[in-house]
Amino acid sequence: MACTMEAVAKKIFKGVLVVELLGVFGAYFLFNKMNTSQDFWQTMSKKFPFILEIYYKTIEQSGMYGVREQDQEKWLNSKN
Fold this sequence. Notes:
Largest sheet: none
Number of domains: 2
Transmembrane segments: 12-31
Structural class: mainly alpha
Protein name: Protein CEBPZOS-like
Keywords: Membrane, Transmembrane, Transmembrane helix
Distance between the termini: 70 Å
Number of strands: 0
Organism: Callorhinus ursinus
Strand content: under 5%
Order of helices and strands: HHHH
InterPro entries: CEBPZOS
């Protein structure tokens, strides 16, 4: 019975590891896309404003200030 419990534990561990890796890569993709595409940024602003807020807080915690204001200025200029 101990062997089957070890096998189940390994499968669970592998599943958790895969889910975490997918989460990390997904977060990186999202951050990179928001950092390089203003159209995507505007879409996120409209549909998922809480994700955009997390994006700006992450950038500000890394020491880069003024990104939010630059993006808002670009967005306003593109509307006019």
